[in-house]
Amino acid sequence: MPGKRALITGAAAGIGKAIAYRFAEAGADLELVDIDSEKLVATKKELEGFGTEVNVHQTDIARREEIDKLWEELSGDGPDILVNNAGIYPFKEFLDVDESFYKRVIETNLDSVYWMCQKMISRRLKRGGVIVNVGSIEALVAFKEDLAHYSMSKAGVIALTRSLAKEHGKHGFRINAIVPGGIITPGTKSKAAQGIFRFDFGLIKTGLEFKWRLPIGRLGQPDEVACMALVLASDLSSYVHGAAIPVDGGFLAA
Length: 254
Known about the structure:
Number of helices: 8
Shape: globular
Helix content: 40-55%
Oligomer: single chain
Mean pLDDT: 92
Radius of gyration: 18 Å
CATH topology: Rossmann fold
CATH architecture: 3-Layer(aba) Sandwich
Strand order of the largest sheet: 3-2-1-4-5-6-7
Structural class: alpha/beta
Strand content: 5-15%
Distance between the termini: 35 Å
Number of domains: 1
Largest sheet: 7 strands, parallel
CATH superfamily: NAD(P)-binding Rossmann-like Domain
């Protein structure tokens, strides 16, 4: 991917950081976006050995005005590749969800993807580009309780991906979604630790049931999602468009 520039949200840790590594390894210049500036800077330092240009942007993508500011900072036609990876998945029972909690999840997981895609397509309408959105298996199979808000937001990401693929393929865009399953990230490790230390047997039971359902017999690594993102962002997938591709160890097939 030499000569290409990729913008990746949620790039300071987990799947986003793994995607940044794979893209840098492939020769792409990077615009890394995250709300955590300290981890962003650390990630940038780790990527210096690849010899590509890496810029970092501390941005709360849940806020439309910060998305506008981010795109104002990007020169020229902007990135060739946009990866909308950032997202949150706080657990809360459906009947306990209030408006502020709901809005934060939807604004972070769905609204931000909408506005980022709008910025990308409007900026590159005459040149086209590649967009990779990150969904979730929870959008297709409601497995974990207390995540109705999250499942809804990620279902919207998949629907948006398909709609934009239909509308803007003719403008030279390829737009796809990755649908990760159970991936071991700092966030999922933290949730697992909470279940153990707080003796949350419901959460522990859900984790065990999830693993038992996996045909491949294990949880995934961030790099396994990153590899698919690299394929979708490259010419290796030149005829893949409007797809929602599971990277889930066979969970949806079981």
